[in-house]
Amino acid sequence: MTVLAYLCVIVLGYLCGSIPSGLWIGKLLRGIDIREYGSGKTGFTNTVRTLGYGPAALVFVVDVCKGALPVLVARFWLSDAPPQALAGLAAMCGHVWPVFAGFRGGRAVLVAFAATTVMMPLLGPLMIAIGLLIALPFGYISLASVVGSGVMAGIIAALALLHRVPLAFGGWGVTAATMIVVLHRDNIDRLRKGTEPKFGHGGHRRSNPADRGL
């Protein structure tokens, strides 16, 4: 029963994460595939670039729910840390490689934020504060995502080693942060070159079909 329950929360997490909110809202409101614009991703930041703040707010809400709901189900159903971590990771994988959108999604930053907040509620405000402290002065959401995820991974790992949170949460923090950094490798390269667009900019149509992949 436990193995089946674990599989259920993993499948639920993946399917929730696979809901391509940015893609569907772009097609519904503008008749476009936002993966053909800006960064080529389906998340909140590229929705702001491509569709504006109103549609992006809808994507924000849906993506937060995608990360929170599977972890909440795992918490109340199984009452243990490992299934919560697995549900969160499955939701991230669904967002990045969505079955409902040809396995071409986003970078799962909001999904990871929501999942972490459900697992460790006190870290939610801290993550927001760290993100704003980086994003507001520099204007780069990608920089805030990469640096912020690394800082949070260190904090969660330290809390786990000090037995303040379950070890499974420590593993979640490190794994989620690693995924986010790897998925931002193109942004990191542009940041180094000084060509990374700031928040809300760079929503032009992508001219190179090869750029439309993950």
Show unreliable segments.
Answer: 209-214
Provide the gyration radius in Å.
17 Å
| Overall average residue pLDDT | 92
Beta-strand percent range? under 5%
The sequence of SSEs as H and E is HHHHHHHHHH
N→C terminal distance: 36 Å
Q: Helical content, roughly?
A: 55-70%
Shape: globular
Strand count, sense and barrel status of the largest sheet are: none
Number of helices: 10
What is the number of beta strands? 0
Any idea how many domains?
1
Give the helix/strand class: mainly alpha
Key structural traits:
mainly alpha; 0% strand; disordered C terminus; 214 residues
Strand and helix map with partners:
Blueprint: H1 2-17, H2 21-29, H3 44-51, H4 53-78, H5 81-96, H6 109-119, H7 123-138, H8 141-161, H9 167-183, H10 185-193
Helix pairs in contact: 1-4, 1-5, 2-4, 3-4, 4-5, 4-6, 5-6, 5-9, 6-9, 7-8, 8-9
Report what the structure shows.
This protein has 214 residues and is mainly alpha-helical. The chain has one domain. It is 70% helix and 0% strand. The protein has helices spanning 2-17, 21-29, 44-51, 53-78, 81-96, 109-119, 123-138, 141-161, 167-183, 185-193. Helix 4 (53-78) packs parallel to helix 6. The longest helix is centred in the first third of the chain and has 26 residues, at 53-78. The N and C termini lie far apart (36 Å).
In short:
The protein is mostly helical. It has helices at 2-17, 21-29, 44-51, 53-78, 81-96, 109-119, 123-138, 141-161, 167-183, 185-193.
